[in-house]
Amino acid sequence: MQWSDQAIILGIRRHGESSAIAEVMTASRGRHLGMVRSGRSRAMQPVLQPGNTVELTWRARLDEHMGEFRIEPLELRAARLMEAATSVYGIQALGALLRLLPERDPHPHLYEALAVIVDHLEDPADAGELFVRFELAVLNDLGFGLDLTECVATGVREDLAYVSPKSGRAVCRAAGTPYADRMLALPEFLALEARRAADHDSLAAAFRLTAFFLNRHVYEPRGLKVSSARDGFVNAALKALKPSSSAA
Q1: Domain span holding position 11
Q2: Would 129 be classed as within a structural domain?
Q3: Does 203 reside within a domain?
Q4: Whether the Cβ atoms of residue 56 and residue 24 lie closer than 8 Å to each other
Q5: Does any domain span residue 167?
Q6: What are residue 31's DSSP bridge partners?
Q7: What DSSP designation does 224 have?
Q8: Interatomic CA distance for residues 188 and 190, integer angstroms
Q9: Measured between alpha carbons, how far is 151 from 158 in angstroms, rounded to an integer?
Q10: How many domains are there within the chain?
Q11: 36 — phi, psi (to 5°)?
């Protein structure tokens, strides 16, 4: 058995005296593990770093075997990703999210999104917004997608201000205001026709929104804890952005 694909390194662990087990997100075959012979050599260590894009060939006698990777570097980002807290925590948090999905389950749109995010992790506003959208995409692929396109109560698509914690669907301001204390805020930048980018307050609300549904549908039912890297990323992203004067 053999195939080749592009991939982004998610993680690495030691294997024996000189080899390593690489965990990657591939363009067409999902998250995949494979052994890299001499993966701990001086030549390979800079390549096998989270965030790097590589060309890999996988070989195994049977499809169900872990198999071996032969890896060639395409884009080495790891050194740059060490320069900002959002990058350091972000690449770890993205890997933790992808581990919620079954191994070898294709998610080409998530690979494409991951490739975009890793190039913007140094910018807190861009990284935060892209990360929230990535969490929403993972929720959708796990079968718990949110519907933020129209009001669940009235069907209107304008002035959507809340999300129902029960249904995971948007609620317009008029229908939701009487129950605002029971609702989750829908940040404006996540609205269907958003015209504003994320700022500190809307990003904080978005992180609360995705955290609520990830905890409810994924972490708690599986008995898992939220990745500490997510907390580090959220704190770093929000710290770099100034709260609005009304929230100060």
Answers
A1: 2-77
A2: yes
A3: yes
A4: yes
A5: no
A6: 25
A7: P
A8: 5
A9: 8
A10: 2
A11: -115, 110
Q: Looking at the structure, do residues 71 and 15 belong to the same domain, yes or no?
A: yes
Residue 209 near residue 69, CB atoms below 8 Å: no
Contacts of 193 (CB under 8 A, 6+ apart): 157
Res 24 pLDDT > 80: yes
Is residue 218 located within the same domain as residue 198? yes
Q: What is the DSSP string of 50-77?
A: TT-EEEEEEE-SSTTS--EEEEEEEE--
pLDDT digits (tens, 9 = 90+) for 127-147: 999 999 999 999 999 999 999
Query: pTM to 2 decimals?
Result: 0.93
Regarding whether 95 and 49 lie in a shared domain, the answer is no
In a domain, 164, yes or no: no
pLDDT at site 45: 93
Sheet harboring 160-163: ordered strands across? Answer: 170-172, 160-163, 184-185
**Structure tokens belonging to residue 151:** 């009001």
Indicate which CATH number applies to the domain containing 60.
2.40.50.140
Token digits of residue 160: 């959507």
Q: Could you give the percent of the chain with pLDDT greater than 90?
A: 91
Distances (CA, A) of 70 to 21, 66, 108: 12, 13, 21
Residues 92 and 214 grouped into a single domain: yes
CA atoms within a 13 Å half-sphere pointing along the CA-CB vector of 9 = 32
Between 193 and 111, residue with greater pLDDT:
111
Counting beta carbons within 10 angstroms of the beta carbon of residue 64, is it exposed (0 to 12), middle (13 to 18) or buried (19 or more)? exposed
